[in-house]
């Protein structure tokens, strides 16, 4: 059981590590158009991303699929850039009534598909790190499960922080949602472009 918690901690640390901030940027880009009242929509969105990266994390770690590491490392910031750019087309609710019922705003089903598809790419990125940790482990099923759970816990922390910050900025400081979305997405876009250029 101690090994389980070791790999769980490694998964948590991997996604929350500021030095490897590409996955953090992606989660931030995913959540940038949502408020705390829309936590159900965000939960579905994050679940779609989780399903995607869980599939390829398992397949790649078990060496059932092969791919170019350099190519995946380039694709990851591209997924961040695309997600951030889609946020620029967000339209703020027109009335106070709609804002008050933000959790009931129309869903954007295509974003769930986007999160799922891009999750497949991020899963291959996660697997690079996990395979380097496994070494000559006799069985990788338990480490794989623990690492994946750790990733999800870290991901939920990031989601909680970004939605909490959105609540402070939008609801307490009375900044428009559109301004919040554009600022956050603009910062993410700039950082994603830097990652693409460097890679």
What does this structure look like?
Keywords: Membrane, Transmembrane, Transmembrane helix. This is HupE / UreJ protein. InterPro entries: Put_HupE_UreJ. With 199 residues, the protein is an all-alpha fold. It has one domain. It is 76% helix and 0% strand. The chain is built from 8 helices and no strands. The longest helix has 32 residues. It is globular.
Task: Note the topology.
Elements: H1 2-16, H2 22-31, H3 39-61, H4 69-87, H5 96-100, H6 109-134, H7 141-172, H8 177-198
Features:
single chain, mainly alpha, 76% helix, 199 residues
Distance between the termini: 38 Å
Note the main sheet.
Answer: none
Helix-strand category: mainly alpha
Q: What is the count of DSSP helices, taking H or I runs of 4+ residues?
A: 8
Helical content, roughly? over 70%
Write a short abstract of this structure.
This protein has 199 residues and is an all-alpha fold. It has helices spanning 2-16, 22-31, 39-61, 69-87, 96-100, 109-134, 141-172, 177-198. Helices cover 76% and strands 0% of the residues.
